Amino acid sequence: MSQTDFIKDIAKYGLENDQARLLASLNELIDHAKKSKRINFALQLQSILKDSIRQQQTSGLLKVGSPQHHQREEDREVSEFILEQLTSDYHFESLVCTDSVKEELSYFIKEHQALEVLHKFDLPVSNKVLFYGPPGCGKTLASYVLAGELEKMMLVVNLGAIVSSKLGETSKNLAKIFRRAAQEDCIVFIDEFDTLGKVRDYSQDHGEMKRVVNTLLQLFDYLPSSSVVIAATNQIDMIDEALLRRFDLKVNLELPDADHILELIKKTLKSGLVELDKKNSLKSIVEGCQGLSYYAIQRTLITAVKRSVIAHSRTSLTKPRVDTKLWLDLVTKEKQQLTAR
Question: Which superkingdom (predicted)?
Fold first, then answer.
């Protein structure tokens, strides 16, 4: 059957209110999507299906205080703590980093692909990753790459909603997120992890953050091996030592060197829709970009491309050419702003 046939069946059984056949057809479509390598589509359908089943189980007239009532309330609360629930199309070719970083991430992915084999030999599976390094060096992108390679749904934690001024609430909120991750067999992504995992003798600590760190230690220890936690921080020195030890993989993403700057430029321009007006200026641009983050370099390049494309619309050239002088000026301004901070 084609995807169109599955969709027709789903529409038919849905309109006929034939839930048994509707669920069977939906599961067949999910299997078809997986076989067709449309993994993200399959994951999104699975997520919709799980949410629908959970809502049906907790719907109807409920006694106040019943387990079903509390489950439905918790589902509603957890959604407030999730900034985004997504699947990722990013893979290794999207990431510019050192060979050693790619090798470490590759082994991490291989462990999850061999989950059953490792369990058979009673071996632990790495499922906690910490990305650290300067801002703009690919920590978030690396997280998306892992989600794409692992073919898992990712829950992006909303720190603003998680952290509460009420005593003990932050720990409870975290527990709800981790419970959802265990149920959904997915990834929890926590950016700015140092906000939660501060050292327990930190000068501003008045007791609540100690409880949060203790809660995280417990949640990490009891996280199912098929679920994953990815954390990112610009300030690894502020994270409690016991929490740092819990991470199976700690990956330092640093500022790019000349080779990685050149790789980033080539990846950004790989579509071939635009070209540099002076290719011999590339060496001086790479030299000028040293000291900037991947994000800053790509942002200046994309800005130069946009301005050059707009200017091209008023010329007769067949292909837009990136004004390298403009780009160098943008790089210089970026470095001046960096120095001024």
Answer: Bacteria
138 DSSP 8-state letter: S
Per-residue model confidence as pLDDT tens digits over 70-126? 444 455 667 888 988 888 999 999 999 999 999 999 999 999 999 999 999 999 999
In the chain, where are the structural domains located?
Answer: 86-252, 258-340
Q: Is the dihedral of CA 207, 208, 214, 217 positive or negative?
A: negative
Which helix (H) or strand (E) is 233 found in, with range? strand 228-233
* CA-based max dimension of the chain: 74
Span 86-252: which CATH code? 3.40.50.300
Q: pTM of the predicted model, to two decimals?
A: 0.78
What does the alpha-carbon distance between residue 147 and residue 91 come to, in Å, rounded to a whole number?
Answer: 8
> Closest Cα to residue 302, out of 272, 322, 320?
322
For 284, other C-beta atoms within 10 Å of its C-beta total 13
Please give the C-alpha separations between residue 207 and each of 55, 177, 278, in angstroms, as whole numbers: 37, 22, 59
Which of 170, 179, 244 minimizes the C-alpha distance to 209?
A: 170
The DSSP-derived string for 9-70 is: HHHHHHHTT-HHHHHHHHHHHHHHHHHTT-HHHHHHHHHHHHHHHHHHHT-SS--TT-HHHH
- Domain 258-340, what architecture? Orthogonal Bundle (1.10)
For strand 275-276 and strand 187-190, is the pairing parallel, antiparallel, or unpaired?
Answer: unpaired
Helix/strand/coil percent split, the chain, to 5: 60, 10, 30
